[in-house]
Amino acid sequence: MICSITLNSDSIGNFYAGDVVTGVVVLDLKNDQKLESIDFKVSGVCKANWSRSAPTIPYIKIYSEKKKVLSILIPNIFKDSFKGDLMPAGIHTYPFHFALPADLPSTFESSIAKVAYYIKIKSKPSYKLRKAVPFTVLGNVNLNHVDEILMPTFYDFSKTFRKSGSFRICFKTYKGFAPRQTIPFEITVVNEKKVKIRKIVVTLIQKLRYNVKEGYAEEERKMCYVEHKNFSRNVAELCFFNMEIPQLIPSSLNTVDPMIDVSYIFRVEVIFPFHLSLLGDVPVTVATTPVIHYEFD
């Protein structure tokens, strides 16, 4: 008995919250099989688990939760092919379709938490046939109707040195984008005392907040970075560079009370050879639909 599940997904194998998923189940039987039914199930599970030290016995507290975010059951999908309690030999097909809710969390996995989706085929009795195929769901985030996301935004960060006056940068970029877009950076450096700069690093950071009934945990992940190193040591100068946005799951905008809350920032760091670094964070939003920005200039 051979069972295959084929999904009609996009070019990189993803589905988006709110989509209708289509595909086909193919069952190839070499011999007649005595079965009660063959059921089709779609499941989505979100779970988190971590521990922290505690001041009292047993000196450790465990935070754990698991919940279903998707459950669809279609019983006895090959009922028209049965002859009594026998499934006859041959090739049997079942085209399927089902809708994904618009507020589903994105597929995700870390050392603390996981969101996973599966299509499962199971017979009765279950030992005859059990088949599970995972599929990827991404939250559907489109920012093209938000005017402030489409235009460049400016952020000022400054630092005062004990004997070298003040130092300031103005960071210009877009604060919303999608994977595989190229995001430009323009940095205006105002360096009154011409302090030596080693480099400016811009890092895209994924911020994660895991929420369960007993508490929460937070984590940061560095997704990619770019740096600029060539400086003139003038009082004022402009720096231009850009970042290729990698494949990412979107920000958690459309999910109500998510167990895994995903957000992003650009962390801007000016590194000096003889002084502490200047740090600044810029909140950004990752979409699934490419953002059609206004002109950068």
From TrEMBL:
InterPro entries documented for this protein: Arrestin-like_C, Arrestin-like_N, Arrestin_C-like, Arrestin_domain-protein, Ig_E-set
Domain Arrestin C-terminal-like: 163-291
Stretch forming the signal peptide: none
SMART domains to which the protein is assigned, alphabetical: Arrestin_C
GO biological process, one term: protein transport
Protein name: Arrestin C-terminal-like domain-containing protein
Assigned keywords, A-Z: Sensory transduction
UniProt xrefs under Pfam families: Arrestin_C, Arrestin_N
